[in-house]
Amino acid sequence: MNVARVGANRIRPYAANGIQECTKRRTFKKMNSRDKILSAIAANQPERTALADISGFKGAEENLQNKYAAVLTAIGGRIYFVKDENEIAATIAAQFPEAKRIINLVDNLSIGNFETVISDPEIHNLKNVDLAIIKAKFAVAENGAVWITEKEVQPRVLPFICEHLAVVITDGIIFPTMHEAYQKIATLEEYGYGSFIAGPSKTADIEQSLVIGAHGPRSMSVFVKV
Amino acid sequence: MHESTKDHAALAAEFNKDEQRVNWHDETLWWIRQKRDKNVHQLPEWEALREAASQIKFNVLSNLHDYLLQFEKNATANGVHVHWAADAKEHNEIVHRLLTEHKVDRMVKSKSMLTEECGLNEYLAEHGIEVIDSDLGERIVQLAKEPPSHIVLPCIHKKKEEIGDLFHKYLGTPANVADPQILTEAARQHLRDVFLTRRAALTGVNFAVAETGEFVVCTNEGNADMGAHLADVHIASMGIEKLIPERKHLGVFLRLLTRSATGQPITTYSSHFKKPRKETPIHIILVDNGRSVQLGRKEFRNSLKCIRCGACMNTCPVYRRSGGHSYHTAVAGPIGSILAPNLDMKKYKDLPFASTLCGSCSNVCPVKIDIHDQLYKWRQELVKEGYTPAAKTISMKLMAQTLSSPTLYNAAGKSGRFVLKHMPFLVSNKLNPWYKEREMPEAPKESFREWYKKNN
Ligand code: SF4
Fold first, then answer.
1. Which residue, among B332, B331, B347, has the nearest Cα to B116 in the 3D structure?
2. pLDDT recorded at residue B13
3. Of the residues B289, B324, B359, which one is the last residue of a structural domain?
4. What is the average per-residue pLDDT within B112-129?
5. In a domain, B33, yes or no
6. Residues B338-352: pLDDT tens digits?
7. Domain annotation covers residue B1
């Protein structure tokens, strides 16, 4: 973080911002609470303390495929290590013979009848998607998650509204922990929306009994190319 | 919001009338605590992570003013509308105004304890706006017309048969069906229809990043994403203490949060909202509601580090045996008992006394809040302000008397042995009513009272 730049904000009078922005009465009212909150905080916050250095947190690099497989399975996901797209297509065909509406966002997958682009701007019409096949940048061994962004997955609702979700880790990358994951994210193109997805949707709200398939997909299959 | 004129002790006594239910509640929460332990023990760096999280959060509190400005600037640059609410009322008014502007009178909401704190659902209902809670546990308590009893597990106090009855009445499931699988499927169908028809969605915020202006929402069910991605407008409500400095710090907090909460390695979904979808605005409301005051209370400001994992509740012997509703505030349990008196000392004067000060909460807290110390300090503060609850005054006096009597102390030998052996007096005595219906270990040959008389 650029401390100097942030620090400079403090001396800039808020009133100046206010004059520029207060074109509407409503905005003016908003500014009052804003100023009130900010000045109370400035008066009450303790003396500045240093930020913790978290660069030392690292996971072990060994056995990542096995670890990832074990964790993903434990949280209700399915794992497939595959050599190419043909193997993915064959597995999907065998696993989801009933799927009628399939949306596939992964290149070079030869499975029967699927849509590759979502031409219908009405996203609510995705409600009958049986299977969505999407790409993810990488997976995380410690928690079974995959990282997706809206660059590869459009529209945002697709991996949530589908009945079943299949995710292909195209580069086969698995990081040990979330620390390495965020280091990688810092090097990737900025996103408008991104999500870690770890397993099928689930709930244990009724007497702590685990039920798979809450509001999102009822299953999650992850394909890692090796 | 849960309004009650009864204090924690009286409400706990009600909960304790059904001993079987109390035992079940106790055991269920303890089981979750054990799941947490199992998961946490797999990470050798756990303590270092807690320490880092605690330091990061303290840095946030010490620099909150600038971080808020930084967040506002970056979120605005991302195309997100930022609003500021000084208190609950203003928060509710902003939500109402936004809904009116979008001509919406039905909204879907995912879990947000802040909106519970603000009494948003009631406020909107008064203004003719229907809110449906989409987290399964929250939907269940909403149908039962109750507030959540736990911040992570909203209907942990409910038996599946009661839930079956509610679903039979409101969702049309067959009578006497209590199978969690069937009930969850019914809720899925019901709420899917809600997601597909509501044009406004409100979510809570788990973390907001000053550096990038994004915010993160964590769910297992996928309800926050279903709501937000299908609606025409997304409103996110967050307490001002939810900020963290940089995106990379999410690595620390996402590793801690769900392991502490339920013993899972991470929630199913950890969604990062940075920019709105095309033509579907995101509004974020930064809510103070007493937080800036708590920030100025030197002894209690650490409570603002809380990431709402619920671990302190799951482990608390008093919470487990008194139930979340006995705390008569939105956030129950040990942390709630520190936060509530800040908002209203008179109304919540009983809560810091609803604790054995055993320290288990502080041991599990992922951001290392000194919870039990703060509860103890609140007691002193409340006594100083003249707000001691009656029953507790007597028991505190007795305790003080006992512990200050040198004869007693000497007769008992080592003080540690004394406290251990005679602590049941302090917890099972009628003056501590949440233990009323509890079966206590076999009584010693001599009752404490007799022993006390003889030895004094
Ligand atoms: S006080 Fe600590 S343990 Fe309790 S809910 Fe907050 S973060 Fe979790």
1. B331
2. 87
3. B289
4. 96
5. yes
6. 999 998 988 999 899
7. no
Q: Does the residue A68 lie in any domain?
A: yes
B336 lines ligand 1 (CB under 6 A): no
Task: Tell if the CB–CB gap between A160 and B28 is shorter than 8 Å.
Answer: no
**How high is the ipTM of this complex?**
0.87
Same-domain status, A13 and A90: no
Interface test with B, best of A2, A47, A160 (most B CBs within 10 A): A160
Radius of gyration, CA atoms only, chain A:
23
Residues B175 and B247 in one domain: yes
Residues A37 and A75 in one domain: no
Does the beta carbon of B307 sit less than 6 angstroms from any atom of ligand 1?
A: yes
Q: Given the structure tokens 């987290």, which residue do they identify?
A: B135
Contact status of B275 with chain A (Cβ, < 8 Å): yes
Q: What is the pLDDT of residue B434?
A: 45
Q: Give residue B417's pLDDT.
A: 40
Sequence-distant (≥ 6) Cβ neighbours of residue B349 within 8 angstroms: B341, B382, B387, B388, B389
Q: Which of B151, B191, B258, B268 to mutate to test the interface with A (most CBs of A within 10 A)?
A: B268
Q: Is B70 exposed, middle or buried (0-12, 13-18, 19+ CB in 10 A)?
A: buried
B75 lines ligand 1 (CB under 6 A): no
Residue segments in chain A with a per-residue pLDDT below the cut of 50: 1-25, 28-30
Using a 6 Å cutoff on CB, does residue B311 contact ligand 1? Answer: yes
The boundaries of the domain holding residue B433 are 391-455
3-state class (DSSP) for residue B231: coil
A91 and A28 in one domain? no
Tell me: do B104 and B159 sit in the same domain.
yes
CA of B380 to the centre of ligand 1 (A): 22
B388-442 pLDDT per residue, tens:
765 555 555 545 544 444 444 344 334 444 444 444 444 444 444 444 444 444 4
Residue nearest to atom 3 of ligand 1 (CA): B365
Q: Which of A56, A156, A205 sits opposite B155 (nearest CB)?
A: A205
Q: Are A146 and A184 a contacting pair, CB within 8 Å?
A: no
| Same-domain pairing of A142 and A178 | yes
Predicted TM-score of the model (pTM)? 0.87
Query: What is the reported pLDDT for B388?
Result: 74
Residues A158 and A79 in one domain: yes
Residue whose token pair is 């019409």: A125
CB contact under 8 A, A193 and B274: yes
Say yes or no: A93 and A17 in one domain.
no
Query: Of the candidates B203, B190, B266, which has an alpha carbon nearest to the alpha carbon of residue B229?
Result: B203
Same domain assignment for residues B143 and B260: yes
Question: Is residue A106 located within the same domain as residue A162?
Answer: yes
> What are the beta bridge partners of residue B282?
B234
In a domain, A49, yes or no: no
Residue B292 at interface with chain A, using a CB cutoff of 8 Å: yes
Cα A157 to Cα A193: distance, rounded to the nearest angstrom: 11
- pLDDT value at position B422? 42
pLDDT digits (tens, 9 = 90+) for A57-111: 999 999 999 999 999 999 999 999 999 999 999 999 999 999 999 999 998 888 7
Distance A109 CA to ligand 1 centre (A): 46
A116 and A9 housed in the same domain: no
Number of domains in chain B: 3
